[in-house]
């Protein structure tokens, strides 16, 4: 399962890579620090999932999310953010995010979500 990590903080990327090392079927197909780089990488790799930081330095995750949904790709989008308020959650859901996680305490759910996607295509605890 190819996964792309989009986060503008290298330390966060490193933490996610470390967490995903526990899921043997996961291949990190690349990382990106901007929406532009993420879109290019998604086009190149056609990943099964993208772990997407909602707040990027030069943009936000909405650009990436809208691109994936308009492209017709079956890519699952896992939004991770420090802005876990109900308004941001609603915006993500309306834009087509598959999962919405709070960076402060929900990173550990990611391996289970990816395993569920591989097993049955969807996690029962979606958003």
Features:
alpha/beta, two-stranded antiparallel ribbon, globular, 5 helices
Can you give me a brief rundown of this structure?
With 127 residues, this protein is α/β, with parallel strands linked by helices.
Could you outline the blueprint of secondary structure elements for this entry?
Layout: E1 2-6, H1 10-20, E2 27-32, H2 35-45, E3 49-53, E4 55-56, E5 59-60, H3 61-71, E6 76-81, H4 86-95, E7 99-102, H5 110-120
Parallel strand pairs: 1-2, 1-3, 3-6, 6-7
Antiparallel strand pairs: 4-5
Helix pairs in contact: 2-3
Question: How does this structure look, described?
Answer:
- There is one protein chain.
- This protein has 127 residues and is an alpha/beta fold.
- It has a single domain, classed as Rossmann fold (3-Layer(aba) Sandwich), CATH 3.40.50.2300.
- The protein has five helices and seven strands.
- The strands form two sheets. The protein has a five-stranded parallel β-sheet with strand order 2-1-3-6-7, sandwiched between helices. Strands 4-5 form a two-stranded antiparallel sheet.
- A hairpin with a 2-residue loop joins strand 4 (55-56) and strand 5 (59-60).
- The mean pLDDT is 89.
């Amino acid at each position: 399962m190819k996964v792309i990590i989009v986060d503008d903080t290298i330390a966060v990327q490193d933490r996610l890579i470390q967490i995903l090392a526990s899921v043997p079927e996961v291949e990190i197909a690349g990382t990106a620090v901007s929406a532009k780089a993420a879109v290019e990488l998604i086009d190149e790799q056609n990943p099964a999932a993208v772990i997407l930081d909602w707040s990027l330095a030069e943009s936000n995750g909405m650009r990436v999310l809208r691109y994936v949904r308009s492209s017709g790709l079956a890519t699952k989008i896992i939004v991770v953010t420090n802005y876990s308020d109900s308004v941001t959650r609603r915006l993500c859901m309306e834009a087509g995010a598959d999962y919405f996680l709070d960076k402060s305490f929900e990173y550990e759910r990611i391996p289970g979500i990816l395993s569920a996607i591989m097993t049955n295509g969807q996690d029962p605890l979606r958003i």
